[in-house]
């Protein structure tokens, strides 16, 4: 069940007409294997771009920059490994997502019931390429339907090719709000990292839900609701 953090929310304003879903760590639980794959890919890039520097030193610099940018890919780009798009292209060469994303038919069925019961629209917005985002959603089991939707998702957006920047860029959320064509308070942004998906959404007046998969929730004033899994979303829509 969802835990309501900001109890002062006006129930009249709480009807949700659009949910913006993060993908990694939100629609599927992050696996240690995938984190390991990213760490190894980072090391390959370090070796390629900075052959004369130590891995320890580079890792420290990377972590420092990541603290500011919030995005690993953006951090690698800032370090000098190419543009955001170029860094992601290099990283993807070393990722085997099939190994880390399990099919989840229960989730597919859940979303199909959810869209039958509630008129809210759903978008998936991921830090990465659109084509890779579709691939990850396909691995979960979502399929392109005749209605033009991809599973429940009216839009699937990879921020790197669409915006050339990564979440939490305010530019992305401002554009999502523009495209949504509904008041911000009718939009719910759902993600597993408050600073990435919730803070920029909150700044624009959207509602926010942190998804934890049972981990202790981070403390952040921009969290309206805490939910454990995507299945808990229904309790926020009634
Ligand atoms: Mg995430």
Write up what this structure looks like.
It is a single chain. The chain is α/β, with parallel strands linked by helices. The protein folds into 2 domains: 3-29 and 102-236, Rossmann fold; 32-98. Helices cover 42% and strands 13% of the residues. The protein is built from 9 helices and 7 strands. The protein has helices at residues 32-49, 55-69, 72-79, 84-92, 105-117, 130-140, 159-163, 170-180, 194-203, and strands spanning 3-4, 18-21, 121-126, 153-158, 187-191, 207-211, 225-227. Strands 1-7-6-5-2-3-4 form a 7-stranded mixed beta sheet, sandwiched between helices. β3 (121-126), α6 and β4 form a beta-alpha-beta unit. α2 (55-69) crosses α3 (72-79) and α3 (72-79) crosses α4 (84-92). The longest helix is centred in the N-terminal third of the chain and has 18 residues, at 32-49. The model has no long low-confidence stretch (mean pLDDT 92). The structure holds magnesium ion. The site of magnesium ion (MG) has 7 residues, from loops.
Offer a few descriptive terms.
238 residues; 2 domains; 7-stranded mixed β-sheet; 9 helices; single chain; Rossmann fold; binds magnesium ion; 7 strands; alpha/beta; globular
In total, how many beta strands? 7
Instruction: Just name the CATH architecture of the largest domain.
Output: 3-Layer(aba) Sandwich
Largest sheet: 7 strands, mixed
Overall radius of gyration:
18 Å
Shape category: globular
Order of helices and strands: EEHHHHHEHEHHEHEE
Unreliable stretches (pLDDT < 50, length at least 5) are: none
Q: Please, what is the CATH homologous superfamily of the largest domain?
A: HAD superfamily/HAD-like
At the first level of CATH, what is the class of the largest domain?
Alpha Beta
Q: Count the domains.
A: 2
Cα end-to-end separation: 12 Å
């Amino acid at each position: 069940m969802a835990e309501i953090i900001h109890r002062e929310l006006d129930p009249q304003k709480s009807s949700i007409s659009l949910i913006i879903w993060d993908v990694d760590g939100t629609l599927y639980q992050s696996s240690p294997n995938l984190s390991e794959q990213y760490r190894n890919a980072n090391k390959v890039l370090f070796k390629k771009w900075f052959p004369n520097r130590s891995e320890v030193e580079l890792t420290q610099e990377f972590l420092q920059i990541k603290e500011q940018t919030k995005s690993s890919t953006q951090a690698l780009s800032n370090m000098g490994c190419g543009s955001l798009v170029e860094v992601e292209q290099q990283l993807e060469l070393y990722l085997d997502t099939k190994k880390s994303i399990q099919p989840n038919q229960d989730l597919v069925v859940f979303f199909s019931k959810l869209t039958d019961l509630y008129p809210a629209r759903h978008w998936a917005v991921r830090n990465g390429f659109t084509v890779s985002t579709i691939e990850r959603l396909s691995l979960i089991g979502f399929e392109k339907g005749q209605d033009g939707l991809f599973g429940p998702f009216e839009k699937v957006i990879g921020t790197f090719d669409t915006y050339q920047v990564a979440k939490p860029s305010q530019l992305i959320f401002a554009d999502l709000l523009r495209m949504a064509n509904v008041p911000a308070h009718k939009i719910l942004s759902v993600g597993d990292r408050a600073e990435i998906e919730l803070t920029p959404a909150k700044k624009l007046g959207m509602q926010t839900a942190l998804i934890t998969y049972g981990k202790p929730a981070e403390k952040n004033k921009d969290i309206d609701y805490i939910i454990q899994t995507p299945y808990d979303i229904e309790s926020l829509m009634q």
